[in-house]
């Protein structure tokens, strides 16, 4: 098993995406393992989605809900791809619901209410080792 897949055992991982100037931006995200990849979900239109549409390189490292990374934790490099197939997206959404349960559903409800009328769609990403 790769280090990237081991990171999927954590409840959250810090996902690093890259700005145009190469600066990394770390964000804690929900994660599930999906075969030989990790899957993430995030609001469409977020900064990380914009950065990933331009540059699919990422690094992941286990973290806390707030993004704190344990000292000595080693990041793993990967490449992200958007999940466009509706059936695949529904299957992965089910995996998130199963893993995070009520916590996930409550979070999505709060997110939807907070976005009031703005795009509340979420995208799904699969990350494979680089």
From TrEMBL:
The lineage of its organism: Bacteria, Bacillati, Actinomycetota, Actinomycetes, Kineosporiales. Residues 9-129 form the Pyridoxamine 5'-phosphate oxidase N-terminal domain. Keywords: Oxidoreductase. Pfam families: PNPOx_N (PF01243). InterPro entries: F420H2_bilvrd_red/Heme_oxyg, PPOX_F420-dep_Rv2061_put, Pyridox_Oxase_N, Split_barrel_FMN-bd. It comes from Angustibacter aerolatus. This is Pyridoxamine 5'-phosphate oxidase N-terminal domain-containing protein.
């Amino acid at each position: 098993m790769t280090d990237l897949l081991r990171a999927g055992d954590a409840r959250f991982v810090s996902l690093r995406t890259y700005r145009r100037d190469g600066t990394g931006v770390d964000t804690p995200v929900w994660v599930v393992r999906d075969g030989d990849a990790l899957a993430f979900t995030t609001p469409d239109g977020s900064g990380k989605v914009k950065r990933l549409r331009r540059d699919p390189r990422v690094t992941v490292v286990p973290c806390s809900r707030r993004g704190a990374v344990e000292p000595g934790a080693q990041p793993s490099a990967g490449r992200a791809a958007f999940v466009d197939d509706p059936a695949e997206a529904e299957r992965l959404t089910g995996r998130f619901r199963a893993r995070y349960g009520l916590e996930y559903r409550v979070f999505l409800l709060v997110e939807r209410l907070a976005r009031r009328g703005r795009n509340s769609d979420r995208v799904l990403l699969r990350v494979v080792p680089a």
